[in-house]
From TrEMBL:
It comes from Halorubrum ejinorense. Its EC number is 1.-.-.-. Residues 126-221 form the Acyl-CoA oxidase/dehydrogenase middle domain. Gene3D superfamilies: Acyl-CoA dehydrogenase/oxidase, N-terminal domain, Butyryl-CoA Dehydrogenase, subunit A, domain 2, Butyryl-CoA Dehydrogenase, subunit A, domain 3. Residues 11-121 form the Acyl-CoA dehydrogenase/oxidase N-terminal domain. Its cofactor is FAD. Signal peptide: none annotated. This is Acyl-CoA dehydrogenase. CDD domains: ACAD. Residues 233-380 form the Acyl-CoA dehydrogenase/oxidase C-terminal domain. GO terms for molecular function: acyl-CoA dehydrogenase activity; flavin adenine dinucleotide binding. Keywords: FAD, Flavoprotein, Oxidoreductase. Belongs to the acyl-CoA dehydrogenase family.
Length: 382
């Protein structure tokens, strides 16, 4: 039975889901293994995605995009991640951070920075995490000091998607020292060819090798006043709101990966023979598949419910954290069970199940580690 069926997807997102499925079947799945092996940035797939009108199109029509809403981006995420998580992350990160320029930026910023991303002439990224601090958003130390005409950035960022490849980034930096530690941060648009901006790729990862993250060093990197996004001191709050949307999408990363694990396991068990029969004859094997599907369907129902809640602004932080945690952990569970059913063959590095098993370790961490999500769920339910 089809896992990513569209009956739970709102009608307005069904066409784009179908387009994403066709694109993923033609361009992502057949290239997954080669990009995993090479660890190269999948420029060709990204360009094909741009031609297909599936990249950075959550940006509004008035700035050159298609204005995809949360449900449409979630539908695309499920399909892309089912095909390959590494390539999918690169495709979905081409406009990362740009959303906050759309929500809080000036008209000049939107014309200069947002439009080229929507028109697929540039790509962006979001720089928040640091070598010493990832989870504590109010503990970041990269500083932006006021100088004549703007600010000077000093510090380091780590794990930043597209740090090397992007044209510009939305950078989160400290601008204050007030006792209210959440009011000390500001967002800046930083062009990656600025003096004082140096980025290199971080060491190779075990999963999602077709996506690239970087380590950035800012050394007296000048950013003009007009590149402040929103208000000085408003960065933490803008980011928290942005992550609510992002976490619903990361739930979709988990769902796509879980679907891949289940599909792969189901195909394997009907083919593999043991004790004179195919292993799908054994009840323990059947129950394992049932457990995978129970987890998957529960997570998907929650994730799509959260999508609606977040889109309507109803307790968004709570629902986003629930969805992200459940869906990404169902992916790790399904990958584990899928590996078990593959027996010794689970260890072959070129098996799809092995790639999924490596990749599922990542969405449980990014966009806020799941233990942080549990903190949010508890706090926001009180
Ligand atoms: C592939 C990938 C892509 C990424 N892309 C980006 C990007 O584009 N931009 C960006 O800015 N960042 C990015 N990140 C960084 C990511 O957001 C951080 O890794 C994440 O927030 C966790 O931070 P950390 O790794 O520093 O872990 P830490 O903060 O050191 O936490 C380690 C562990 O400690 C525990 N822990 C920490 N604090 C608490 C607490 N308060 N309560 C309970 N448990 C706690 C948790 O178990 C947590 O997993 C990416 C990461 C990966 C792996």
């Amino acid at each position: 039975m089809e896992l990513l069926d569209d009956s739970i997807v709102p009608e307005r997102a069904r066409d784009v889901k179908q387009e994403a499925r066709e694109f993923a079947d033609e361009y992502i799945a057949p290239n997954a293994e080669a990009y995993y092996d090479s660890g190269d940035y999948p420029w060709e797939v990204l360009e094909a995605g741009m031609d297909a009108g599936l990249i950075a199109q959550d940006i509004g029509e008035e700035y050159g995009g298609k204005g995809f809403d949360l449900a449409q981006v979630l539908a695309i995420a499920e399909e892309f991640y089912r095909a390959d998580a590494g390539i999918a992350l690169t495709l979905q990160l081409a406009s990362f951070g740009a959303e906050m320029v759309e929500d809080y930026g000036t008209e000049e910023q939107k014309e200069k920075y947002l439009r080229p991303v929507a028109e697929n002439e540039q790509i962006s990224g979001l720089a928040v995490s640091e070598p010493q601090t990832g989870s504590d958003l109010a503990g970041m130390t990269t500083k932006a000091e006021k100088v004549e005409g703007g600010y000077e950035l000093t510090g380091e960022k780590y794990w930043v998607g597209n740090a090397v490849e992007a044209d510009w980034l939305t950078v989160y930096a400290k601008t204050g020292e007030s006792d209210d530690r959440y009011s000390n941060y500001t967002l800046f648009i930083v062009e990656t060819d600025s003096d004082g901006y140096e980025a290199e790729h971080i060491p190779e990862k075990m999963g999602m090798r077709a996506s690239k993250q970087g380590h950035i060093v800012f050394e007296d990197c000048f950013v003009p006043e007009e590149n402040v996004v929103g208000s000085e001191g408003g960065g933490f709050y803008a980011l928290a709101d942005f992550f609510n949307h992002g976490r619903v999408i990361v739930g979709g990363h988990g769902l796509g990966l879980a679907a891949a694990a289940i599909e792969e396991a189901e195909a394997f068990i009907s083919d593999r023979e043991a004790f004179g029969r195919t292993i799908d004859d054994f009840q323990a094997v059947q129950h394992t598949i049932s457990d995978m599907r129970i987890g998957f369907e529960s997570a998907r129902a929650l994730n799509w419910r959260a999508c609606e809640k977040v889109a309507n602004g109803e307790d968004a932080g709570y629902w986003a954290a629930l969805a992200k945690t459940k869906s990404t952990e169902v992916a790790t569970d399904c990958a584990e069970m899928g590996m078990k059913l593959h027996g010794g063959r689970s260890n072959f590095t070129d098996r799809r199940i092995a790639r999924v098993y490596r990749d599922v370790r990542i969405p449980v961490i990014y966009e806020g580690a799941n233990d942080i999500q549990r903190n949010l769920i508890y706090r926001q339910s009180r």
